[in-house]
């Protein structure tokens, strides 16, 4: 299988193209990939036929049919022969209690890793650093079965020079190993070393940042990065806004506010990851785009209007994950005009749609804490 | 076997916990199950220490077979 336009897109740096330069190429890449899924995945063909969608003729991205994330919980959808299946990824069982099932062949798996890594490096810089991981040692150990949480952590380790975990399990409950974390951060401060502190959002704030603030304990880790990932629901209920988290992290760790980075992504489009930029918005790389749709009519919304986010990318060729309607609400901030300098569509994620129960990796992790 | 090649094989065998006889030019993450994201980082750290070289993440991403690793190290040392 050859995807000429997709390959051309992937030759570009993630955020270097203006919409006018990207759109013709992106549309051609999407046409080729949509046609591939239409030809090779029967359920996707049925969906397209029902909607009267011709993958060779569409002219607007908003015309592309979308699959809701729930579809991936019902069946393993494939656009490749089963013999070419290289790996099956299961999400953490969230809303419905049933995990999503995603089938990868080697080219898709490789492409996803490369896309993910390039976005991470663009945000963190091309330098390997020591990682302080706010999770248990098992999360980074080699095991035959890798859970979604562990998989998320391990996917970031390609830019690590060392990884140290700072959570211990006592009687089935998790606690922060404060001594270990302090030792790591004090050493980094002393050596002037730029490190990465990585954790799920709630754990980072509730079990590290807030206790340190209460003790008036601060570090000077200028140039280090604080990366967090996972849901906001638990913090929202404690009246901690994203802005407060940034301010407090900056104060405790002595880093610039722009070095506190919130990663967003979802299993149905692994490889696509959306870190917040220095202006606290997220950007679509040249190999992706996003639309906000009205939750009731499902019509595309203009910039500034909140709706369900639909993510579009040609990087998955083993399963029809090229146009996914999520249960996440957000809005388009603008195109090609972010003060951070990154081109492309800028957007914000504001949370889950109201009727959805939130139980992602971060929420499950939070429940394990003592 | 050249000295550099032998030292690369030794690091591979140690990090992946396999017999050095199983490492050949075609060894890659697809045919060596021990070669995962974690052992890849350990491999890069091992190579950096052994040869006193620096490998940035972007360079590390492309080292997807024993042969690529060996050629990369040779190039760095030349």
Protein described:
Chain A has about 375 residues and is an alpha/beta fold. Chain A has 2 domains: about 5-90 and about 280-350, ANL, N-terminal domain (Rossmann fold), CATH 3.40.50.12780; about 115-265 and about 360-365, Rossmann fold. In chain A, about 35% of the residues lie in helices and about 20% in strands. Chain A contains 11 helices and 16 strands. In chain A, the strands form 4 sheets. In chain A, strands 1, 12, 13, 14, 15 and 16 form a 6-stranded mixed beta sheet that branches. Chain B is mainly α and about 80 residues long. Chain B has one domain (about 5-75): Non-ribosomal Peptide Synthetase Peptidyl Carrier Protein, Chain A (Orthogonal Bundle). Chain B is about 60% helix and about 0% strand. Chain B is built from 4 helices and no strands. Chain B has helices at about 5-15, 35-50, 55-60, 65-75. In chain B, helix 1 packs antiparallel against helix 2 (about 35-50). The longest helix of chain B has 15 residues, at about 35-50. Chain B is globular and about 30 Å long. The mean pLDDT of chain B is about 90. The interface of A and B includes residues 127, 141, 155, 160 and 161 of A.
CATH topology of the largest domain in chain A: Rossmann fold
Outline of chain B: globular
Count of distinct strands of chain A: 16
User: What is the helix content of chain A?
Assistant: 25-40%
Name the CATH superfamily assignment of chain B: ACP-like
What is the helix/strand order of chain A? HHHEHEEHEHEEEHEHEHHEEEEEEEH
Topology-level CATH name of chain B: Non-ribosomal Peptide Synthetase Peptidyl Carrier Protein, Chain A
Structural domains of chain A: how many:
2
Radius of gyration of chain A using CA atoms only: 21 Å
In the CATH hierarchy, what is the class of the largest domain in chain A?
Alpha Beta
> Mean of the pLDDT scores of chain B?
92
Cα(first) to Cα(last) distance of chain B is 18 Å
What CATH architecture of chain B do you see? Orthogonal Bundle
- What proportion of the residues of chain B is helical, as a percent range? 55-70%
Q: Which regions of chain A have little confidence, pLDDT < 50, spanning 5+ residues?
A: none
* 3D shape of chain A: globular
Largest sheet properties of chain A = 6 strands, mixed
Distance between the termini of chain A: 51 Å
Radius of gyration of chain B: 11 Å
With helices defined by DSSP (H or I, 4 residues minimum), what is the helix count of chain B?
4
Give the C-level CATH assignment of chain B.
Mainly Alpha
